[in-house]
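Q: Convert this sequence to structure tokens.
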Amino acid sequence: MSEKAVDITPNEQVHFKSSSAKLKARVSAADTMITVLIYALFALFALICVFPFYSIIINTISANDISARGDVVFYPRQIHFQNYLDVFKIPGLGNAALVSLGRTLLGTALTVGASAFLGFMFTQEDMWRRRFWYRFTIITMYFNAGIIPWYLTMRSLHLTNNFLAYILPTIVAPFFIILVKTFIESTPKELQQAASIDGAGLMTIFFKIMLPISKPILATVAIFAAVDQWNSFQDTLLLVTDSKLYSLQFILYNYINQASSLSTMVNLQNAGSSAMASLATKQTTTSIRMTVTIIVVAPILLVYPIFQRFFVKGIMIGAVKG
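A:
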């Protein structure tokens, strides 16, 4: 059977092209409006998130008396950087910064390594008593004996006034193990099976197969662990009396408390009585709190850009082909 060609007159062709162009213009205009609206909403959300941090920064570099009155809102006034210079004069601040840096780097590395290995092992069906050990690990998320039994345990393990008190209790983190285990279970089993058939052992599969493709989840765990280590000060408060082991957050925490009380007696204190009293008489409680906040938060903000590229990469690069 032959099909008859449909003849379209020139006028009909012009009308059809005109209608198509109008439709495309309408769709393009609608898409543009939606895109602009989405960008505007995200820009507003970003501004809401960034502005508090920006406000703290401009208050730390503004005149302390103006900042204390709450007159610094959108831009700094009478800019100076004396607040940061004075805060860095706190006795023991340099050593405390090294302690915090050391516990963050070492603690994060060990936590990520343990989470990766245990998360991988809990996916191996031939692991001895796998379900028991997995449940034994996870149950610690739901039951907590309290601070006093925890302190007595740490003291019996000789972890008071010991740098290892910052490291050992954080190595095994059930939540991170769950994250890694769930991620590995979402990867194709053919990866491990193919490597096993080629003669690869368990550790070879772990280091050469699973670790490279687990970078996104390991980067996430690293960020969480680093933030926890950097911001922690309660373990120092409960376990450490040696000033050489004070963490940066603990030093600044004490300083904030002391500065709050000293600022109320600013006219009664002698400027040369102590370094902290001198600093408190020059500044207000508001400037001290805000400057300390920036010092504590700023370093950890540098961690995210380092690991950000692992979030945007594909999880399974070069995986099994269909």
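DSSP finds 15 helices and no strands in the chain.
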